[in-house]
Specification:
Blueprint: E1 9-10, E2 35-42, E3 45-46, E4 50-53, H1 64-68, E5 71-73, E6 76-80, E7 86-89, H2 91-104, H3 112-125, E8 137-146, E9 158-168, E10 177-180, H4 198-213, E11 218-222, E12 230-233, E13 236-242, E14 245-248, H5 259-270, E15 275-277, H6 282-291, E16 294-301, E17 305-308, E18 311-314, E19 317-320, H7 329-341, E20 352-354
Parallel strand pairs: 1-4, 10-11, 10-18, 14-15
Antiparallel strand pairs: 2-3, 2-4, 2-9, 5-8, 6-7, 6-8, 7-20, 8-9, 11-12, 12-13, 13-14, 13-16, 16-17, 18-19
Helix pairs in contact: 5-7
The protein binds pyridoxal-5'-phosphate.
Pyridoxal-5'-phosphate binds at residues 75, 196, 232, 235-237, 256, 258-261, 301-302.
Length: 355
């Protein structure tokens, strides 16, 4: 589990800005807590992590990450449970995945004491920033970037790991309408689709922008070779309900291994809902929505939890999905997951980590 933190150097703020937080008016990713964590890795040696007042950092314009994109991140959440405790959800999984991303990007592993210990220290200091409210949470953003001042293309020798935290509310106000992408790709075999590296998100902006101009909120990505199989949706894993059974693409080098995805699959099994990790073909799903055998399509990820789609656009036609009700599979999964995180039901899976 989580071991003791190394000696963090802590410089607390003189006065908290938490008064700026209005739990009813949270705009995702715009307000940051009082403190941030900074840890530098110099020639392979991790230096003492520091916790400082949140603020700008100055860098030389030649740092490698700005030019060649050696940069990775994680996205996770802390919650206030029904007893008022601050809890994190499966933080070890984010820690492991972060270091998998690091390896693919030739970056150093971050020690557990810095990643998990750092989150714990920060959350302790900034616990008043974890907002009340059923749909609210504190979004945690660990990230690392190459900091060598050097314009040659090679793995950097120096890196900076940081954690910042930002209050989060509900993500999408309306169920998104999504477009099946059959021209652009997110990931190809042998590439970096399974890593949470910054460049993946930069590359997805243009196809997403084109889809938005056509009236869609988000994309459904298909495989790079044939565009016949679903992979993900935007920055979420994707689920389908066909004849009452849950289908989701199995993870591969082109699919980010979502922690929400894994949690929902385990919850579904515990609720005796049949699940299958398999190839999911665009044609079968489109035909299924048209005939009524496919009743739900939804995305799953930390930011959204579960996001049911209202319609799937394919080759110029919109295939409208039935409205979601409390008895929909996505509602059952979402409620079960939220209840575990909020401490409303027993944490049978051992997912909740109290800070
Ligand atoms: C982060 C992310 C997900 C969701 O992962 P979670 O661990 O559930 O938050 C899915 N796909 C992509 C591309 C992602 O970046």
């Amino acid at each position: 589990m989580i071991t003791e933190a190394p000696a963090f150097k802590i410089s607390p703020v003189k006065e908290s800005r938490v008064g700026q937080l209005d739990p009813d008016k949270i705009v995702f990713g715009t307000l940051f807590t009082d403190h941030m964590l900074v840890a530098d890795c110099v020639n392979g040696e991790w230096q003492t992590p520091e916790i400082l007042p949140y603020g700008s950092i100055a860098y030389d314009p030649a740092i490698a990450s700005l030019h060649y994109g050696q940069s990775i991140f994680e996205g996770m959440k802390a919650f206030k449970n029904v007893d008022g405790d601050v809890v994190m959800f499966r933080p070890e999984e984010n820690f492991k995945r972060f270091n998998i991303s690091a390896e693919r990007m030739c970056m150093p592993s971050v020690p557990e004491e810095i990643f998990l210990g750092g989150l714990r220290e920060l959350l302790n200091l900034d616990r008043n920033w974890v907002p009340d409210g059923d749909d609210n949470s504190l979004y945690l953003r660990p990230f690392m970037f190459a900091s060598d001042v050097y314009l040659g293309v090679r793995p950097s020798l120096n890196y900076r790991f940081m954690i910042i935290m930002s209050p989060a509310g509900q993500y999408y106000a309306e169920p998104p309408k999504v477009k099946v992408e059959t021209e652009f790709i997110r990931a190809a075999e042998g590439g970096v689709g399974y890593a949470k590296c910054a460049g993946n998100y930069a590359a997805s902006l243009y196809p997403a922008k084109l889809a938005q101009e056509q009236g869609y909120t988000q994309l459904l990505w298909t495989d790079a070779k044939t565009h016949s199989r679903f992979e993900e949706s935007g920055t979420m894993n994707v689920f389908f309900v066909k004849d009452g059974k849950i289908l989701t693409p199995k993870t591969s080098s082109t699919i980010l291994k979502g922690i929400t995805r894994d949690s929902l699959l385990q919850i579904a099994k515990s609720l005796d809902i049949e699940v299958s990790e398999q190839d999911v073909y665009v044609k079968d799903i489109i035909d299924g929505i048209a005939s009524g055998s496919v009743s739900e399509v939804f995305g799953a990820g930390t930011a959204v939890v579960v996001s049911p789609f209202s319609a799937v656009g394919f080759e110029g036609n919109d295939y409208v999905l039935p409205e979601i009700t409390e008895s929909s599979v996505s509602s059952k999964l979402k409620n079960a997951l939220n209840d575990i995180r909020k401490g409303k039901t027993e944490d049978r899976f051992g997912w909740v980590y109290k800070v």
